[in-house]
Batch of 3 targets.
Target 1
Amino acid sequence: MHPLDNPIWHSLATAHAGFAQICNSARKFPREVSVLGGFTEPTPESYDSLASLLEPEKTVNLFLQAPPDPPTAWSILSTGTLLQMLCDPSSSRGANPEGCRSDRVHSEQPEFIRLTNSDVPEMLALTTLTIPGPFGARTRELGDYFGIRSGGRLAAMAGERLRLPGYTEISAVCTHPDYLGRGYASALIEMLIERICSRGELPFLHVRSKNARAIQLYERLGFGKRVSFHYAVLRHQT
């Protein structure tokens, strides 16, 4: 299995092993860092191991290769399909001639600000409003996150989340509704692509399969569709 076929588990087993809460084949992030978890195979034993890592009444988010089919002690709160996209300069799948960097020219290059712990309240407010995916009070510890401010207000942000050898995920791409149409998301993604590629790594990301507008944007920026997952938000009944 390719590491990107099980990215949460491989991230927790490699670059983010220092965050990993572990029981047998199951691993998860501390909840304030991320609600993501994973295991090597979706067996009853793996689900039992994952359950032992959860606090009572708390949920966990999984990326699965098949629709979720957990043991009866689990409740499926939400599920759907998630598309993984990869920017690979050695592939013809959507990459532009310059590799994994977009050749889009911005009429006005915004200033990118590295976001710090003092920015977390605004980051949480923006992700709560725009819902780009789960984002916690300590998610920014997983990688570098950058924002664009307008009039002192956090108008857009994006950053790095899952990491495994040779790959870094771009995540939390979001723009406040008052600032849509200014190219902020594209500019942030292009900057992150350049940073990741400069380290000799490949950028990847995840997007809901029904989000056609975002998928088209990512394809214009050099990403190609790689694989589909079934995401699942689960709760274990104790």
Target 2
Amino acid sequence: MKLLSAQQIQQWDAFTMQAEAIASIDLMERAAIRCVDWMINENSIQSTVKIFCGKGNNGGDGLAIARLLIEKGFAVSVYILEFGARGTDDFQDNLQRLHQLTKNIHFIQSEEHLPAIEHPDLVVDALYGSGLNRPLKDLSALVVEHINQSSANIISIDVPSGMSIDKSSKGNSIIRARNTLTFQSLKLCFLITENANYFGITHVLDIGLHPQFLETIDTVFQITDLNFIKHILPERNAFVHKGKFGHAFLIAGNAGKIGAAIMAAGAALRTGCGLLSVNIPKEYASVVHAVYPEAMIAFREHGLLQLETYSSIGIGPGLGTNAASEQLLEQVLNDYQQPFVIDADAITILSFHKEWLKKIRPGSVLTPHPKEFDRLFGNSDNEFERIEKAIYLTKEYPFIIVLKGHYTFIAFNGKGWFNTTGNAGLAKGGSGDVLTGMLTTLLAQTFSPFDAAVAAVYLHGLAADLALENQSMESLIATDVINAIGKAFNYLREVV
């Protein structure tokens, strides 16, 4: 699914109007009807509805919503942010229609005109929409803060006012909505952690924009969906043997962190590699074999010999950052000729030796969380900047970046994909180790590095979601995710 910029959203409206010979105000009416239907179906209206409008098309949406609610018998008050300028044509047309139904229309020209907002009120935020390209200030910011200070139920139309859809709004005045009714498709701003306190629950309302438009455009950002992943994962031929599914090699675990190697190994085995070897200190071999006798052990004291025998390598979980661990990573960088996975402590080691970035093989996958990313590539002021940096880095270097988060972001070749599976139960130690094991295994098979990265992230989140059938987000642990990997594969193959 493509994520559109603000300009592309406007172009989609224009494309629809031309293709269907529909006027913009009629398209606005579609959007308003969908919003009103949602409010009524969700029983959102318990008292007076207070609708706050700017004079752009988002305000026009608000006026149309007000008219439709009045026609259905609801008590509605409208408050228009007034700066003396004329509104858009569609705003003015909807204002004229509304004047024929009610006189309960007020203009906010200063702080003194701000209305009281009671607890049971429904506040509809239609001040500013997706076209906003600057921070709110002065009277606009005062109105936003006034609404936020109320305890009313707040619904934002399209986006919370003050939020930019495709750049950071960190530190700006933004409506804190309980629900956001956005039109036709998800926007980039709803996938960014720093915005999470403002949009509440996002609901995508289909307003009938022409689907053919999406075939005419290219976007930097996309969302990975079920169909995308199902296309990546092939069915297994009944006559295959273990040699067809690769020999994965994990360099993980150390004193006090051997659990990271065990979790990565379990995830690797459950994700389907033909063979798995784990490189650990000799004294922990019995521990690993007690949990996963299917794994072979390569003792760390014997060094890393014959790396070319392995189909893929994953290095970093629980490895430590001492001199011996640095030597292990440097040897893989120098000697291994195929893409491999770099995670956790191996990323930290890279941050000590940034010149090693040039040694990373094309197609290799780095899996940092935000702090590891900043440690390696420099601090970012906000999440948008971090994402843009990841995009830029994959133009400069031939590797893939998996930036872990609620919507884990995969950057590759100057573009980005957001993953939508997973839940807050993954916010625990060990989750990243599981992902590394899964990714290393898929890389060992016949997947391209990009397909392996996207599929591993999706399956990892899906397994966590399916594990909630038996756990809560509080009780979920990494081994629960490992145990649900099989369910995730079955789900992908069974769902139509």
Target 3
Amino acid sequence: MAVHPVFPRLACWLLACWLLACGFPGTCMALQTGPPTLENLLNPKSEDLNKDEPIPFENPRAKPVAPPRVDRPRDAPPRALPPAAPAKRLAVPDEAAVAEALELIHEAYEEAIQSASANPDAAIRTFRDAANKTTDAGRKYALLLLAERLALEAHATSRALDILAQRAALFDIDALADRHNLLTGVARTDDGRPDALLFEQVVETAELAVAADRFDLADAAADLAEATAKAIDKDMKIRAAESRRKREQPPASVAAKLLSEATSLQKKVRERRRQAFEYAAARDTLTAAPDDAQAAETVGRYLCFVKRDWTAGLPVLARGSDESLRNLAVQEVALAKETAVDPTTLLKLANEWWKVADTTDALPPPQAEAVKAHAAGIYHDIAGKLTDPIDATLARKRSNSPDLPPPPTVNAAAPSVTPSLPTLDSVLQSNGL
């Protein structure tokens, strides 16, 4: 076989890469016609693939019937991205280092790679274990990439997301964008059936993007959720027609529910983008006019009711224009400065927040839910210290914590210590106001 004349010294590497691809399920890669970049090693061009085999991540339409699987790894429930590691993450190795590591891995684990078609779970476990043990950043990154690719080839999307989360915990990558790209590729594969689990994973990605204020990415994920729901709807209609031809009971369809959820998600993303824009404008107004009550209320509402950052939002809300919200915020900020607060005082505060959530028409349902969640936190902290059985039972019910210990006697009641909140000036300074 001829080797590209521009890269004679990489002939053996390319041959090893070819052997690897022939061992992957569902692919058959010819000798690379381009340089051995990471993209070429992990994602061969469509013209280099056997046209009779499915091409991962290329076909935008999914088949209605999935091919039979053999010894596929169990697809675990979706897992959210992990929180940022306390230690500094590693820089992503350069492409040359990863490509070199891939060549060595292909040679060292040739048998595991060749057997991956029949038992991908073992190969995935081998690569992840090796990634945990090696101290070389390039090899660690390459091993995780290969494990992720094997999981995708085995149609174990949740496993691939879990490996991506592992890679994101170790390396400084854009985990959210990579997650979206991975799911986009899965949705466009030629040999899979769209399902509710994939839909949930896409929705989770959109929710994570909204929480991170990455609205362009959230929009793209919400659109992907809608496309996935439509693909499920089409698949279910085909299956129902087939069942009727066979005089069988057609399967129950969840497509209508998923389409409704996708539409609601798109509306939520648009609304959150609007709120973030108004918050940024109000924050700029406070910079120029710190006494602007309307701007303070907008900033305080956004931080407390949307971002649920009550520590930063309460001091600002305490200077807002809405009298009922301002009074409660002022009261809670004052209580936070005290070293000991009677539980019944905190109970009254929680009751007032709960009442605001139930009676304030200006709060849309998501914000009212945030207010009740804040009140529930107060109820949870004091439920075990309340002596009146009605108060204690109500606090347990509203905090959704029926397993809290029973209230103590009157004499055994201990004072509550609430951590102090930052001052308004410190909050504004920390937010660049």
